[in-house]
Amino acid sequence: MIFIPLSFAVSLFLVAFLLRLLLQGRESLVRNHLFVLLIALYAAQTTLVGLRWGYGMTAVLPLLSLLATAIPPLTYLAFRDLAREEGAGLSLADWPHLLPTAALVVLHFVWRDPIDLLIIVEFLAYGLRLLWLARLGPDGLVAARLDGTLRSHRSLLLAALALVASAFTDIAISLDLLWGEGRHSALMVSAATTVILLLLGIAAVVAGAEEGDGEGDEVGEKEEVGDENVRASVDASASRLPQALSGEHEAVAASLDRLMAERRLYGDTGLNLGKLARRMGLPARTVSQAVNRVHGMSVSQYVNNFRVAEACRLLAETDMPVTRIVFEAGFMTKSNFNREFLRVTGSSPTAFRAAQRAAALTDEPAG
Fold this sequence. Notes:
Layout: H1 6-22, H2 26-31, H3 33-55, H4 61-82, H5 99-110, H6 115-133, H7 149-179, H8 185-212, H9 221-226, H10 228-240, H11 247-263, H12 273-280, H13 284-295, H14 299-317, H15 322-328, H16 334-345, H17 349-363
């Protein structure tokens, strides 16, 4: 019987989703190029793991170590882009993230003993850095589409924990080599590396898919001029309200309420916190804090409340199919739509429509 390592199955899984992202079009590829590159890197690494520990090919070890040092910084940079209002993508300022890989190349020819320690420290450091990035919650991912911020944030946490787990796994392997003569090392390396790469791949796939279908910024020049009134309203209201009572937050929240109602921004399936902040001429953190403190919810929940309200109107007043209402209300995926609809209304869209029609029949006059 032909032996096929589990890591090869993980590689096929990652390649399938990589092709899915690539088929979404050039615009999606440009916007999510770091996640695409990340998934490709995970797929290559799991393939090498299968070759090394499934078929005993020791020649791939240097390449395994080299790719391993590229995984943590690229994972961090991909998720970091979701937390930046501007300047997405790589820049010359990101050159320090190449240092671990450069150090490994040097150590490979000069002194190989510290290589394992270098990889452990790197995975742990970037894992903790991702956890720090996740501390602000879903609203911290200002560039993430609001329809998918919750999943993107969960993916961020999953990636962070996977990197930290990898560091501790390498420590356990080192201890086994030191005290247990490496009896369990081969199994630990193969299984743990495959599982960790699978978790990292899932995180990248989910985050990349959530951001891959969004539309471009639809803010036009005419709308930007009109939004000067919103900024003026915020400034004027904030100056009249006492800061001790969070008057600025109340003013921002009130202006955002008007902007959402008058401009129907929730209908933009690609809407994110960064776009909302730009429309108001305010920092994303200010808008996020205003919504959190005044409405007691995240920005994604706030926007999705408007979307669910619009969906309820369409369900009650039209015969439009639910699959179309999903997009008309501003959602990108039916799964997110169903989850948020249940959160707000406590029922499914189909049950809501049936209840509305039953109520309408009851209210009709007899005869």
